[in-house]
Amino acid sequence: MSTQTLIIDARHQLNLPQRMLSSTLTAMLWMLWFYLWLPALSLLAWLSGFRAFYQQMIAQPVWLRGPQTFSMYLLTLFAAACALALWARLSQRQGLGCALQQGRTVPLFDYAQHFGANAGEIETGRDASVVVVHHDAEGRIVQIATQTVRHG
Amino acid sequence: MLTLFTTIWDFLLGYVFYYPLLMSYLWMLGAALYFYNRERHDPPFNRPPLLASYPPVSVLIPCYNEGDNAEETVMQALKLDYPEFEVIAINDGSRDNTGAVLDRLAAQHPKLKVVHLAQNQGKAVALTSGSLLARHEILLCIDGDALLDPHAADWMVRHFIEHPKVAAVTGNPRIRNRSTLLGRVQVGEFSSIVGMIKRAQMSYGRLFTVSGVITAFRKSAMHDVGYWSSDMMTEDIDISWKLQRREWEIRFEPNALVWILMPETVKGLWKQRLRWAQGGAQVLLKNADILGQPRLASLWPLYIEYSLSVVWSYTMLMLLVVWILDFIVPVGWLPMVDSPIVPEWNGVLLGATCLLQFALSKWLDSRYDQGLGRNYYWMIWYPLVFWVINTATTIAAFPKAVFRQRGQRARWISPDRGIRA
């Protein structure tokens, strides 16, 4: 099975203005994004106030704040990652609840008891092709009925 | 007093900026580690490795008003390339022709079993009823509109064989509908956010949630925790926490693919995200007690991270309100908030980080979804629009979760499934 056949790209079902709108708006958003990157070319930044722009981009550029800023970022990141990994290793112990169940399949009787259902009905239901399950108002099973189906 | 206020204000400003930045790099680092340690050794997803044994599998498909999708979903599930399996379609009291479609299919395919619920009960009860009537120990659960990859079972079962402590394995949902802008952005989102976070969480120990649209469960583990909760808005987040609280292990398997439909209208997207956020908030409230239990310390980072993201959303809202008020009230009454119109180097850093995260995630998922790189163009909408939607739904969902009556049954919400060809 080619995964490509599962993809639905019915863009032709959109009308021309819809297609144009989404493509154009996306291009505009990229420009807005590049504006973050290329502030020197951005007229808006200058219009918003030369003083603020100058202060942020020229007077206090990030590289003048020293390499210690970046090293602090990196240190924080690695410390957080290591702490999480270490925490995972130390805190994951096999607990009692899980250990009791491991490798144990639950007998039909236990299922029936848990659901308050009839074990015979469950067994018959498991073998049937079509089953109707009735619940009460609280969502508890009250009856499991089977239906016969003729295979074609 | 003023100094304290200024300090708190500066802290909040720093938090709003640094928190997503730190999380983004933590996710990227964690996902890269996961790829290096585990994923890169795997053969292509359509050539799964041979297993030591092939325990039989029951595929559960809960359906509610899936008349348009049920046949395609069931037929695809029946194509599973696995030695022994059964498919169980659960019709949860649908009001459309789902029941008739399933009955017709059951008559044609002996491997298909149909379970009709006499009245609509909600997804959790539907899944629980299906699991009771399943013959096999491994339950592979998918949604009623999801197309299962034929090799998915092999990839998931290997984890259950590997370790008896594994209770659930979640797969890698890929989006089918890519006609509109919303569809295309979500294609990227499922790699950049969903897939990347799951890989990172695997590296750091625990998963916040399995994906309800594709997860395989060990039935005895589900019995141990009392199955899915019928009062939770997102049964998948809840079951993930129930299992991990009992110290069962849940895993992510990127090679187990399922092809899904997502909303392609803003209204549909909003409803879906609001439900997700409400489900997350419900789980947060329900599991607050873990912080007092050292036995569950492995879940603390997940809990704290999710709490911090909720706090972040509210902090953003507060800053936005202050920024707007600043135009109205006299100068000096409120603390300074920089104009978002003036670009700063912080913006450059945040922008670059975002693009880097998209690029890395697309590269990671390109093994499973060909041509994913072409989708990059549309991803620019994610930080500018989807962040806003996700932040807004988080803000709206939390009070809803707080005031929602405990025990109130969660019912199906049929999402919009986008444009069909």
Observed structural traits:
heterodimer, A: 152 residues, mainly alpha, flat, B: 421 residues, 8 strands, 50% helix, membrane (chain B), transmembrane (chain B), transmembrane helix (chain B), glycosyltransferase (chain B), acetylglucosaminyltransferase activity (chain B)
Describe this structure in words.
The complex is a heterodimer of chains A (152) and B (421). In chain A, 57% of the residues lie in helices and 9% in strands. Chain A has a two-stranded antiparallel ribbon with strand order 1-2. Chain A is flat and about 80 Å long. By secondary structure, chain B is of the alpha/beta class. Chain B has a domain of 285 residues. Chain B is built from 12 helices and 8 strands. An 8-stranded mixed sheet of chain B has the order 3-2-1-4-7-6-8-5, sandwiched between helices. In chain B, α3 links the parallel β2 and β3. In chain B, α1 packs across α6 and α8 runs parallel beside α9. Chain B is globular, with a radius of gyration of 22 Å. The termini of chain B are far apart. Classes of the chains: A mainly alpha (152), B alpha/beta (421). The interface between A and B is large, with 82 and 88 residues. Chain B: Keywords: Cell membrane, Glycosyltransferase, Membrane, Transferase, Transmembrane, Transmembrane helix. Chain B: Its main location: membrane. Chain B: It is found in: Cell membrane.
Q: Topology, please?
A:
The complex is a heterodimer of chains A (152) and B (421).
Chain A: H1 16-37, H2 43-48, H3 50-59, H4 67-91, H5 96-101, H6 108-115, H7 119-127, E1 130-135, E2 141-147
Antiparallel strand pairs in A: 1-2
Chain B: H1 2-37, E1 57-63, H2 70-78, E2 85-92, H3 98-108, E3 112-117, H4 123-132, E4 138-142, E5 147-148, H5 152-162, E6 166-175, H6 181-204, E7 214-218, H7 219-225, H8 235-245, E8 249-260, H9 266-286, H10 300-325, H11 345-365, H12 381-403
Parallel strand pairs in B: 1-2, 1-4, 2-3, 6-8
Antiparallel strand pairs in B: 4-7, 5-8, 6-7
Helix pairs in contact in B: 1-6, 1-10, 1-11, 6-11, 8-9, 9-12, 10-12
